[in-house]
Design goal:
125 residues; three-stranded parallel sheet
Length: 125
């Protein structure tokens, strides 16, 4: 009797090991720059609820994003010259207002660095 249980167990293990792996559904890989990261909620709400569709939203700095591995990449700012294809999906102007008591004199590059995440705090200015 023990031999039959052992043979049954071995047969089940063998069948489980030989069964094909589960088939993954289609995957949509989206990348967001840190400055565009708040868009993930809106993007997630717009993704169709297709059965089996897996959506991965990754936050990546533009210089670390491998565009060949992503289906779409969203970032704020002007498109790079060598980016290949880039489409502007929105335009927004931002005004930075500081109180007169703040001694900071920021250049346009410093302000851009704050908004895109290159400068992470006032202490870096």
């Amino acid at each position: 009797m023990k031999r039959i249980h052992l043979l049954t167990f071995v047969a089940l293990v063998w069948l489980a090991a030989c069964s094909p792996p589960p088939v993954a559904g289609p995957e949509l890989r989206l990348g967001l720059s840190p400055a565009a990261a708040p868009l993930h909620i809106a993007i997630g709400a717009c993704v169709p609820a297709a059965e089996g569709l897996q959506v991965r939203i990754l936050t990546l700095y533009p210089e670390h994003a491998d565009l060949a591995e992503l289906d779409l990449y969203f970032r704020l700012g002007e498109p790079d010259e060598e980016a290949g294809f880039a489409a502007q999906v929105a335009w927004e102007e931002i005004a930075l207002a500081l109180p007169a008591s703040n001694p900071a004199r920021l250049s346009a590059a410093q302000v851009a660095g704050l908004f895109v995440g290159r400068i992470e705090g006032w202490s870096e200015l």
